[in-house]
Design goal:
The first copy, chain A, is of the alpha/beta class. Chain A is built from eleven helices and 13 strands. In chain A, helix 3 crosses helix 4 and helix 8 packs across helix 10. Chains A and B meet through helix 4 and helix 5 of A and helix 4 and helix 5 of B.
Chain lengths: 318, 318
């Protein structure tokens, strides 16, 4: 196929680009390089089946033009800052909700009818059922990020029903692995580089969280596109386990050979809209024959290895 | 209190304005008069405790300025066309989702922290549980209208959690009564005025629907504001019954003394995104001590009486 990847220079996007090229697909990556990195596409850029289009997803005309001739849209461009919603509420509306609308309209304009979308377990707010299935009790939104991703899901579903689109909506836990440039492993390692003796933790460290390694995530996306019914397909994506923030700190500091003094901001939640317990029921994905290859611990350590080997990512995000 | 009513010249809005004034509140109605009618505010405009501000909700500065000094926002301004979403998908995004964002930002700007919002049973898509409770299995959106209202709910909930707002979210069935100027009673009566011998019906006439009389709706809003816990309060609002489209046609034609030839477009759904069965569990509202005074049949006949006595509403909406 000829795949179109919004946010194709980002963390998940650039890994997806490489995997698509590896299996023989043609790929157009569309990215404004605001948080994406050209470095992540170094291999892809040497491939004649790849093109990078620098553009903003909010620019509907440029988007439609770049999309023409493609068969499938992987819509990954987004504001992925879960924590800072209340500091700039318009950002989630603009970069998630309105951006997704522009992608869907560009698809109508250019005749592309298939879309895979990176949603989030954050749309479950603070769930009452664990592990949380896709048809959990209708949740109440607790973060602007979750609310904006839910709005995107609604749009995609309505386009599936109204315009005959096929949609694959993936509700991710936190994804990590190579090219990861935000999130707790990034933050903790960065601060330990500056001061190996002390580490400040948001919340009480007992928040229970789920993580998935990026190549397991991409395996799942490929499996779902091949095998899931789409009206649309809505699929949780995570491992069948969770860990405490303190567990992760232990793994990270252990691997680094450090014993920093830990201090905590306190409270069950690290920030406004933080969910103290994220643990998704991934039975639907499992039924499609997919299983993750790395455990949460392995994913975290693999991420740490990447960060240690690529200190330039810290300089670039100062 | 000093109430701020967006869409205050509309069907539900103008009835709410009158009721607020009746109980002694001060009221500012904010409306761009695109579908609202100055005629509906004739009584209100004679009341010194009332002010009408003509403005667009998308104009954030005008909105904030008009809202200043108010205590409570009733956000009713919306695109209420459920049927035509696929003809102009941007309309729901703009007039519902982005409009609601502007209202919330204007509230932050002007220091108002309480909001009541008119959501819809359409956000349940095609439910699997009847009567459908507020915590029904997480639904899949089937209409752009429902998707846009769900996005509004998410924003309001996130503002409650992030900014300490109090929110009352009402998931309405179809509301009808005096000043009703769209929907099936309006359409059917209008067409029977033009041709009393024939009536064409969208779908197979067997769609099961719920309706609520506008003053029962407003009673419920007042009861909820007084008594419901808000984190936010999410409340279904309808009667404990439903009827078939064919029942309603029987009541309408019976009251008019007509026996038109009925033809049907066929199918379980009247249009793309139409839900063949809407029946909400209103137990939460009932627990607050509220009960509707009119049955569905009484509400429909009351609406018909209004339309027969006010033929000018048809001329104005040609």
């Amino acid at each position: 196929m000829k795949a179109f990847v919004t946010g194709g220079a980002g963390f998940i996007g650039s890994n997806l680009v490489d995997r698509l090229l590896l299996r023989g697909d043609d790929v157009v990556a569309y990215d404004n390089l605001s948080t994406g990195r050209r470095e992540f596409l170094r291999e892809a850029l040497a491939n004649p089946r790849f093109a990078l289009v620098e553009g903003d997803v909010l620019d509907g005309d440029a988007l439609s033009a770049a999309m023409r001739g493609c068969d499938f849209v992987f819509h990954l461009a987004a504001n992925a800052d879960v924590r800072f919603g209340v500091e700039h509420p318009e950002k989630d509306l603009l970069q998630n909700t309105i951006t997704t609308f522009r992608v869907l309209e560009a698809m109508r304009e250019s005749g592309v009818k298939r879309i895979a979308f990176s949603s989030t377990g954050s749309i479950y707010g603070e769930p009452v059922v664990f592990p949380t299935p896709e048809d959990a009790p209708f949740p109440v939104q607790t973060s602007l990020y979750g609310a904006s991703k839910l709005a995107c899901e609604g749009l995609i579903s309505a386009y599936c029903n109204g315009f005959g689109f096929s949609g694959w909506i993936f509700r991710f836990v936190s994804i990590l692995g190579e090219r990861y440039t935000h999130g707790h492993v990034f933050d903790f390692y960065k601060r330990l580089r500056d001061d190996p003796q002390a580490l400040h933790v948001l919340g009480n460290g007992k928040q229970r969280k789920s993580y998935l390694y990026v190549h397991d995530c991409i395996d799942a996306i490929f499996a779902a596109i091949e095998r899931a019914e789409t009206k649309p397909a809505i699929l949780n994506l995570g491992t069948d386990e969770y860990c405490m923030v303190n567990d992760s700190i232990g793994w990270i500091t252990g691997a680094l050979g450090l014993t920093p003094r830990l201090t905590y901001s306190g409270g069950e939640r690290g920030w406004i809209g933080d969910s103290p317990f994220i643990f998704l029921d991934c039975g639907r994905m499992r039924q499609l024959g997919w299983a993750p290859k790395l455990s949460i611990q392995q994913g975290i350590l693999r991420t740490l290895d990447f960060l240690r080997a690529n200190p330039w990512v810290f300089d670039a995000t100062q």
